[in-house]
Structure formats: C-alpha cells, structure tokens
Amino acid sequence: MRVFVLGGTGSIGSAVVQELVQRGHEIWGLARSEVSAARLRELGAMPVAGDAAAPEVWAAKLLQVDAVIHASCDFNTGMDAIDRHLLDVLLPALAAQPKRPRFIYTGGCWLFGAAGDDVATEETPFHPLPDFAWMVPHLRRILETAEIDGIVIHPAMVYTPGGGVFLRFAREAIEREAIRVVESEAVRWPLVHSRDLANLYALALEKAPARSSYIGAAIDGLAVGRIARAFAMRRGTRRQQPQIIPAEMIAAELGAWAKGYALDQRLSGAKARRELGWKRASRARTRNRAASVTGVENEKPADTQRAFVKLCQF
Fold first, then answer.
1. Whole-angstrom Cα distance, residue 125 to residue 113?
2. Are 133 and 113 in contact (CB under 8 A)?
3. At what angle do helices 224-235 and 303-312 cross, to 10 degrees?
C-alpha cells in the first residue's frame, strides 16, 4: 500500500514507518524540517514538506494514497486546535481521492482514566485526563466519517530502546538520590514496546475492519514502583526506594498532562490478539527489550539484569 504518515519521526511513528517499510509498503511522511526529512529517508520513507499545523499548504496536493496513519501529537496546549484544523482540511482532501482510503488515528491509554482493578477494554467508557479530552470527539469523527475507513488505536505506555516512558527514570537513577514516582508505588501502567505497537498498526492497516478500535497493551498493568526500583538497582542509585511525589508537583514541572503518570490502569490487548492475530514478542525478545531500556543489552547476563527482568515481570 501507499501510506502517508503524520508524526513519522516520533517514538511511535518512527517504529511504524520502519515496520511498514519492512513489510514492503510505500511510505511517505510529513516533514516539518530538513532534519525530519533526513530522518524519514533514513527510515526508508519519502518526505513530504509540510507542517501539521498548516495542512492547507500540502493537503490539496497530497498524492493518491491507500491509507493515512496519524501519529502526530505533542503536549502543546494548542494541540486541540491544531488537530481539529488538520482534520477539517485533510478529511475533505481524502474524500476527494479516487479510492476510499483507510485512516488510522492514535488515541491513548489516558483517555480511559483510572481503571484500578478493572481491566479496561475497547468497550469501557472514556474518562479522559482533561488535557487529552479533546481527542475523544476527534477520534469519534474519524470513526463516523463516511468517506474513509476509520480505525483507532489506543497505545499503552510506550517504552523504546531509548527509554520512551522510562526515560525519566533512567535519568533520575543517575542524577538524583532516588527515582520519583507519582502518588504511589502501587500505581500500575499498561505497557507496550514501540516495535510491538508498530506491528499492531501494520496489522490494523492490512486487515482491521472499518470503524474498529484496538488497545495496544502487551502488558495489562505493571506496578510503577517495581520498575523504578529495577532502574535504581541497575544504576546504583543511592536510595533504592522511590521518592513519592504528588501529581501536582510533576504537573508544575512538566505540565498538567503529566498527571497521567498517577493514573492506576490495567488495559487489555485481547481484542487485537483475537481479531488481528497480534502477538506479544517472544519472552526472550521481550527480556532483551527490557534490558535495552536500562542499558544492559551489550552485557552478559548479570544479577542486575536478572533482577530487572524479575522485578518487572517481563
């Protein structure tokens, strides 16, 4: 397929581009700068100059595509207006194409709120973090637009070879006396590796029915305290016990969106496994991924690596 990717250099988008290129798809990506364009070329995609905040410049000239994957999002307070304007311009442009395209939109686990002991599924009502509530009407718009085949994917907390959602832990394990955990060690995060998530996007592109939604959670929920302690053990942090901080403190530092770190969640990826054949990476592969996050992938198995794997239950 010929696929146009928005956000193709981000932590999710870059993994998606790599996965689709490996599967033989022709990938084009929106590039806001020459640096982004160069990165897309490295990944095997063709760059299209343009900015998601100014779709009127490039959307009308968009080449014929089989699908669009929207993985562009940041924590800018203006993201609601940017995304709404993007859809206002892009959806009519896609409707005018000779072939009905697929449109995969990225939601998120924080739209489900604090699920606690309940395991959230695609049928669970949304209770979004306020800073991301704007996503709900947007994703519903995608699913309800008649001229496209809309699909929504809700990623769990994404970790990557460079750290991803664990990057702060990796830094604080070295720079602070203790790693900070928001609200409680018992808070659970649903998790997925970026490459496993990219595989889900590819499966959704190739075989998901229109108007469908999928949660991308490979691990339904893992206590964040165990993860923080594993990083502290690996890096020799002075205090192995995490420092508990209130949500207001991390919000004052990073923005109100960061209160999402306090959400206690368990999310199910069962629907994607059942309907699309999505599979979590093999246990050995997942252990290597867990090890790569803490920087031990090039070392022989050691007590610290085994401790990380055991504590995080990978």
1. 9
2. no
3. 170
